Amino acid sequence: MKTLKRFLIYGIIGLVLEVIYTGLASLLKGDFSMQGMTFLVMLPIYGLSVFLEPLHNYLRSHPWWIRGLIYLATIWAIEFSSGIILALILGNCPWHYSDPLNVNGYITLRMAPEWFLAGLGFEFIHDFLDTLPLKI
Q1: Which contiguous run of DSSP H or E holds residue 134?
Q2: How many domains are there within the chain?
Q3: Which of 3, 43, 123, 132 lies deepest, with the highest CB count within 10 Å?
Q4: pLDDT at 135 over 70
Q5: 107 has which bridge partners?
Q6: Average pLDDT of the residues of the chain
Q7: At what angle do helices 112-131 and 64-90 cross, to 10 degrees?
Q8: How confident is the model at residue 119 (pLDDT cuts 50, 70, 90)?
């Protein structure tokens, strides 16, 4: 039950952060409506962060930059494989990167700083959830 709760928490946090990120990105492009968006199919993909918790526990003693690089590689692996699976199931992947640094449209190396920081930010969320009295 704990894993399911955290799966949902991570999924919802991911959705909210993606809407904020895309809304701010639209503002930077001059769109003052700051329209943000995501895809509902991202809920379970972001929810998979629950399986990073054991990795986080294992990596705690390593320097922050090594942890960040490992999270980055893990996130890219999840994003890439999720993109392939969704393309097979749905006929296309909901997201498609088209910048020069994309890999088959499923991931983009341009997002390295964001995913690096997201991985490290995940550590704070994980540790916070562990401090809650109900052990969510």
Answers
A1: none
A2: 1
A3: 123
A4: no
A5: 103
A6: 94
A7: 100
A8: very high
Range of 47's domain? 2-131
- Count, in order, helices (H) and strands (E) of the chain: 5, 2
Which pLDDT band, with edges at 50, 70 and 90, does 136 fall under?
A: low
User: Whole-model pTM?
Assistant: 0.89
Domain annotation covers residue 71? yes
Residue 108 has phi, psi (to 5 degrees) of: -135, 135
User: Do residues 129 and 9 make contact, with C-beta atoms less than 8 angstroms apart?
Assistant: yes
pLDDT score for 107: 97
| Nearest in space to 39 (alpha carbons), one of 57, 19, 54, 53 | 19
Question: Does the pLDDT at position 75 exceed 80?
Answer: yes
Q: How many CA atoms lie within 13 A of 65 on its CB side?
A: 0
Q: Is residue 106 part of a domain?
A: yes
Rounded Cα distance, 83 and 77, in Å: 10
Tell me if 26 sits within 8 A of 73, measured CB to CB. Answer: no
Residue 136 domain-assigned (yes or no): no
From the list 107, 104, 49, the residue with the least C-alpha distance to 79 is 107
DSSP one-letter string for 103-125: ETTTEEGGGHHHHHHHHHHHHHH
